[in-house]
Amino acid sequence: MYQLNVVPAENQQIEYNHNERVTGDLIDLRSAIATSGETNTPRPVSIALGSQYETRTFTVNPPHPRGTIESVPADGAVSISGNDITDLDDLETHYLVYEPHYNEYTGAPTTVLEHTLLYNDFEGTNLSVADQMMIGDNSVFIPLVDGDLSESGSGTTAVDVESLEGPQTETIDQDVVIELPTTDTEMWTSGTDLPAGATVSPNPDTGHVTITLDGDVFDEVSIARVGVGGEYGEDQLGDFGESKSQPDPTQTFAVEFDDPPPITEGDEGVELITTVTDNETDEQIENASVDFSKQNNGKIHIDRPRSDERTDEVGEATAVVDAVSSGSTTIYGSSGDSSTGLSLEIEESGQEPGFSALEATAGGNINAIEFAYTPTGGLTDPSIDFAVYDGEDVSGTELDSGTDSNPDVDSENILELDGFSSSDTDPPVTIEVVLTDDNVDVVCTGTITDNTDEISIEDGGIDCTSDTADSEFSTAIDDTNEPVVEGETVEVETIVENTGDKDDTQTVELEIEDHGIVDSTELSLESGESEPITVAWETDDGDADTDIDATVSSEDDSDTVQVTVEAEPDPAFFDVSIEETNSPVVEGQTLEVDATIENTGDETGDRTVELETDDEVRDAVGVELEPGESTTVILEWDTVPGFWFFPGDAGTYDADVQSGDDTDTTTVVVEES
């Protein structure tokens, strides 16, 4: 039992810990690529491809976990246009892909690094690990990754990152459009946090995203070819921009964050300080460039700067962040050949979602209404609808409406409704406000009626209440097709019901004991709705066992059933055992051989059992047996006496009784007559 249960569980934890470690290595690789233009010398980055299980004395480990990192050519080219930029529409680049090969942690993701964006691919469901470092507050650095990288093993390998060409920089004062090939357009539209002045739109048909840079916000665009793995291609940058000077290539940096202050969701302007020092002398470095990025899980927003912050006279650079929601996250700082991460814990604010301030003002005769509002309480993706109605309630004529689909949280926002005039209405008017935020399960609504010619609502005005409706996906296993034989598929029929009071979509997973998650399906259910689903496990050789836990889980509930996988049955096998003969006989008599035939296989079968001497079949009989069944057969050979010049059958023979599966042999004698 220890070998079957404890060893796999301990090894799975080792593999999980390794996956977290190699993710940190890949973040370092990402930072080295994003800052490659800061040195002309190769910068080795260690990647722990695999891991080692602990040595065991009385139990057995499988082979140590391995991993592979390789460069994959992008399916398409990078192009840049605008600001009189020409001949930059076929820039080649590569993605870097790490794939683990674990024995127990079978649900481990493949990790992809493209254009400095690092994300995990869970068999089609992609989750961002670290945000892109390519687009800063007012500058862009595009690394074109080149090289034939392919490393596999269970140890640690060093990936050399070197500057092949550039960086070359173009100063801009007009809008610039960048086309990037990508494996997942949605990662760039919803999985990244772009600064002001940069907008992104997907082109899923071509596998590209289009990023437009506002020329009034951005000052420069830089490009560099970055090498990993050797066997590099030709130069690509041509006459684009001007080359940037490189710092002293012998100088290497160390980057460290100071301990962060306590942070609560909704906090703004939180300062996180890094110090850059010389690795050799330990002296603080002034005017060193520091780039900041973050884990992309929606917990913080980097207010300033995102890139190219310069250290002061004591080697310090400061990132200013806003805490969006509670939970754990990481901010990263990179300078020269060094990068580091700082773990942050964002505490809950305890403040109810809604408005901390809402004011509505209108001039005489009500021909326009201006709303000033501050949404608060840990909202992450709020949307606010405003409407003005003629009359004492919302049943009156709608005069105008407007939506703010992306208001700043914990900051004042302004929206004006001016789609009507004083001739449209006389007092009273009714104002309706609806705030929603699916990420924190909040719906705030409120109305107010004003009977005066000049509206003035202060200090909230509209009483907003929260609807804490939530979904609840219960799982109840209804049936299975067990037992199955190795190689067949276990099917688990499950009823999933949304017993909550909110429509929702969840992923329902099937987890098999000692195998991890083997199947999943995404299910959308309205409140009170239920749906039968079937999740499956494709078994393989070696999976035979009894009482295997099969667990079907939603985000809220789980149900477990035990299933049996039987070993593949042995085919019918007819074992032959000669019991006795009537040898010797005289020519002309019948030789009889008695044999027992037993089916030692697991399946019913039939065979032709033959008696053979001198390679000649003397007798045959058909036999059909169920598993474990046996029978006795008597096989006969009618011998022939000699006549005149024709010899008879007299002699000593090897008599073979054979079933096609097995043969037994005995010696028989036929005497002269």
Automatic annotation (TrEMBL):
It comes from Halobiforma nitratireducens JCM 10879. InterPro entries: Ig-like_fold (IPR013783). This is CARDB domain-containing protein. Residues 652-673 are annotated as: Disordered.
